[in-house]
Design a protein that fits this description.
Number of helices: 4
Largest sheet: 6 strands, parallel
Number of domains: 1
Strand content: 15-25%
Strand order of the largest sheet: 3-2-1-4-5-6
CATH architecture: 3-Layer(aba) Sandwich
Distance between the termini: 16 Å
CATH topology: Rossmann fold
Order of helices and strands: EHEEHEHEHE
Radius of gyration: 15 Å
Number of strands: 6
Length: 181
């Protein structure tokens, strides 16, 4: 029997329009994610939780600094049914792209403790944190799915999104839409 878990990746203010490192479609995916949340009993949501000074900001604009307004979940995200929040990128030298790199909880352990067999991933940013989380779920042995209608890309370089989707598909991660659940 399969047990499904949802990982919501970085649906934070700084990654949505008006934020420090926005995905153009960041606001658009929130209603879809809110519908998905209702279909899962086990939900982990990750957050970038960077210190004020980190080497990560040599590559990216300052964003999601722990405790800041930009690090909060988007106000329209339904957070009531989230079981765990995984904080990542918390050190001065780590990027923390994957939810599996969280420093406050062991996401892999938590999923296995709850007998999760199938991991579904949605959130921001497709070509970085969503991809890294999905790849780590797959490597950890979970049957892994990514909702293509519930992800948004920062698209730092043109074509990054398509490349990321292709890489995930090539690894055996299934790309699906909310309606196929």
């Amino acid at each position: 029997m399969s047990v499904k878990g949802l990982i919501i990746v970085d649906v934070q203010k700084d990654f949505c329009p008006g934020g420090a490192l926005p995905a153009a479609e960041g606001n658009d995916i929130i209603p879809v994610i809110n519908k998905l949340i209702k279909k899962f009993d086990f939900i982990v949501a990750s957050k970038d939780w960077h210190p004020a000074e980190t080497v990560h900001f040599e590559k990216w604009p300052v964003h999601c600094v722990r405790g800041s307004n930009g690090a909060k979940f988007h106000k329209q995200l339904n957070v009531e049914n989230i079981n765990e929040v995984a904080l990542k990128g918390t050190g001065n030298t780590d990027d923390g792209y994957s939810a599996f790199e969280a420093t406050n909880i062991d996401v892999n352990y938590w999923l296995k403790k709850n007998n999760i067999t199938d991991v579904y991933v949605c959130g921001i940013a497709t070509e970085y944190c969503v991809k890294a989380t999905a790849m780590d779920a797959h490597k950890a042995g979970f049957k892994t799915y990514v909702f293509t209608d519930a992800i948004a890309a920062v698209e730092a370089k043109p074509g990054d999104t398509e490349k990321a989707l292709e890489e995930m598909s090539d690894e055996g991660i299934q790309l699906i839409t909310r309606k196929s659940l």
